[in-house]
Design goal:
The structure is a homodimer of 321-residue chains. Chain A is built from 15 helices and two strands. In chain A, strand 1 and strand 2 form a beta hairpin. Chain A is globular. The two termini of chain A are 20 Å apart. Chain A has a single domain, classed as Farnesyl Diphosphate Synthase (Orthogonal Bundle). With 321 residues, the first copy, chain A, is mainly alpha-helical. Chains A and B meet through helix 2, helix 4, helix 6 and helix 7 of A and helix 2, helix 4, helix 6 and helix 7 of B.
């Protein structure tokens, strides 16, 4: 069984402390900022960055600083996503747009984004800045493409879904691993392998997120069938639509995007997602990307964090939240 | 009479061309991006940057690149502001949130922000990156503080208004001038003077904007009394409230923030803003900041763009839109 080293856990805690320090002097910004960072989140991207940057050549402080930048960028996208998705809850709490307003979410998101840029400029490594600025741009690009797919519904292809998963999620995983490796001044080859590992892990992470959305109950802090209620076609629904009878397909498309669902509707939606065929295709896809991640990890056997990276991949694969 | 040189105007046009090149491959992003940049705007900040960066030591290409970054940052804030203010119009056209949705505005704003960061990373000058990341953060900070002032209403002080004007507007003017001077590798002293000039000019610019809001008619592409309808206390209203009788003051506070105003109400609001006392205080404040700008310009007599900077200050002072 692989677990995280105590030193890594301590570094992950320092990311949280580091972020909390970045307060503004104004009360309203303090309130918003503290509210957002009062829940810790999983910090998967920050952890990936900490592991990829491990090297005897680089100080822990710099690695924690880069991981904090990654976590800030990720949090800013979440805060803006809540406006886009009109989400009411985030990480088991009411979302910022619920406690305050959409305006507050937009602006505190911008505040956190630019805070991340301030911190990354301090690191003063041009290739890292370039990678993170491009990743941020790609995330926004992915979200906009996803918006326009709402209208496409039945014509969405698996390639569309994989592209969006990459841009929305895989891209920041890729950048977290790549910039980590860049910081450790690894060889070009190793930076490339870390990038590919991050990309595959991020895609697997998104597939798992989509699966969990159909399994989530209120006590996990998430609304059950949130994606479905928002009208999003994700991997589980995509396969279910492929496999369903015309009658069931029409039922799914009719209910898709309805915020309020009857208990019997929820039951039927669950049944249609839980068919053997759909579940087989889902786990096949999930395994494909986890195996790809492991394939790249296999090329990093000498890496000081090999075992911890294996832990991260395993835990991402089997996680329940 | 001072005017812009043809070479400067050509450079300003190249900013527009430069920005238009930064398209993504996806149709929806192209549509949004082209819509936003189809109107040219005044490009005051980009012009300030072009003038401050003029030097025989630096190539025009780099100056146009930096001015494009400034214009992209400014545009991103406008797109997000439209969500915050629930604006229906921008630069004489329907705003993005009207033609598409709030979600599109949030995400295309993020897209443009990160595009600006990608381009500024290419310039590869650490002090410029630091200044622009900090300016972006301060703008968001200013907007959040402004939101929380809604509740303060009668207790707002002139210092509150000056602080917000600086953060919202003066800060990017300051950064435009400062980073321009940094690019031209000017002396520390000259960079500082340019920063102070930009800050004063930006504050004067915001005061003028606030004044114009009470003078604007539909044919300028702006909603008359837009700030007032949004519940914002700006400089004209601040002085009017100071000078009004208790009855008129109560009238103003009662109508403040109401999107729909009767013709007779609009007439009375205009009258209360147009009193001699309020107008005198407004032009006094405006002159104070324009004079401060001229004072700093006076320390730049040797600068190759002295006359053009004088033109920019004059035109900002007397502009009608």
């Amino acid at each position: 069984m692989y677990i995280l080293k105590k030193t890594t856990e301590a570094e992950l805690n320092r990311v949280q402390v580091n972020i909390a320090k970045e307060l503004a002097s104004e009360k309203i910004i303090q309130e918003l900022y503290e509210y957002i960072f009062s829940t810790r989140g999983k910090k998967t991207r920050a952890l990936l960055c900490l592991l990829a940057s491990k090297s005897s050549k680089i100080k822990s402080n710099k690695r924690v600083a880069l991981a904090s930048v990654i976590e800030l960028l990720h949090t800013a996208t979440l805060v803006h996503d809540d406006v886009v998705d009109e989400s009411k809850r985030r990480r088991g709490m009411q979302s910022v747009n619920q406690v305050w307003t959409n305006s507050h979410s937009v602006l505190i998101g911008d505040f956190i984004y630019s805070k991340a840029f301030i911190l990354m400029v301090k690191l003063n490594i041009s290739s890292i800045l370039d990678e993170l600025a491009n990743a941020t741009n790609d995330i926004a690009r992915g979200e906009i493409i996803q918006l326009s797919l709402f209208e496409k519904k039945q014509c969405i292809t698996l390639d569309d879904l994989l592209k969006i998963s990459y841009l929305k999620t895989g891209r920041l995983f890729e950048a977290s691993a790549k910039t980590g490796a860049m910081l450790a001044s690894n060889s070009k080859k190793e930076i490339k392998i870390f990038g590919l590992l991050g990309k595959a892990l991020g895609t697997a992470f998104q597939i798992k997120d989509d699966i969990l959305d159909y399994e989530s109950r209120l006590d996990t802090g998430k609304t059950p069938l949130k994606d479905f209620r928002e009208g999003k076609i994700t991997f589980p629904l995509y396969f279910a639509l492929q496999n369903a009878s015309t009658k069931d397909k029409n039922f799914l498309l009719k209910k898709l995007g309805q915020p309020r669902l009857l208990k019997k509707d929820i039951k039927l939606i669950h049944q249609l997602i839980q068919t053997n065929e759909t579940q087989k295709e889902l786990s096949g896809l999930m395994n494909k990307y986890t195996n790809e991640t492991l394939k790249y990890l296999n090329q990093l056997k000498h890496h000081p964090c090999y075992n911890e990276l294996l832990y991260l991949i395993n835990i991402s694969h089997i996680r329940k939240i």
